[in-house]
Design a protein that fits this description.
The protein has 166 residues and is mainly α. Helix content is 78%, strand content 0%. It has seven helices and no strands. It has helices at residues 2-20, 27-47, 52-75, 77-82, 96-118, 128-151, 154-165.
């Protein structure tokens, strides 16, 4: 199963996502699929099980990629544009509309990150500390995305980008 996931990630990244970068800003959405496969693949490889846990890892990584990558695309906008890449949420570049999209996806990250804590079961997937850390980190990213929305400044996108690395 993990070999199939790896092959799917490779195929989507090389043959779908990469060519789309020159065509449409939807490439980031397409690229989020192969980008979210590695944590899921690792779980499947370690447990030989494809279940809720693997799906949650995929969902969290998938949602995180949007504010993360769009912050990078904001910082490197001129370079990407010279290369013919369209990687911000909208083709019109560093706009309030793109910054708002980054903010919305940062906010979506909070409930997605809390799913492993919130889903009922016999044994919780994560404890309360994980929920607190996920909430604090999600709120911090959302605050930084809000600052970017307010200013549309590269320095605020850079701060969000480095926060997303954390």
């Amino acid at each position: 199963a993990s070999g199939i996931l790896g092959l799917a990630a490779f195929f989507l990244y090389v043959f779908v996502y990469t060519p789309l970068k020159r065509v449409t800003s939807l490439a980031v959405f397409v690229g989020a699929f192969p980008g979210a496969i590695p944590p899921m693949l690792g779980y499947v490889a370690a447990t030989n099980s494809f279940g809720l846990e693997a799906g949650l890892l995929f969902a969290m990584q998938f949602m995180w990629q949007f504010p993360h990558f769009w912050a990078i695309a904001w910082v490197a906008y001129e370079d990407y544009t010279r290369g013919g890449y369209k990687l911000l949420p909208f083709n019109d570049g560093r706009t309030k509309r793109s910054a708002f999209q980054i903010l919305i996806y940062s906010l979506f990250l909070i409930p997605i990150s809390l799913l492993p804590w919130a889903i009922p079961g016999d044994q919780p997937l994560v404890g309360n500390l994980a929920a607190v850390v996920a909430t604090i980190c999600g709120m911090a990213m959302s605050w930084l995305a809000f600052k970017l929305f307010k200013t549309c400044e590269v320095k605020d996108a850079r701060t969000l980008m480095f926060a997303s690395f954390f």
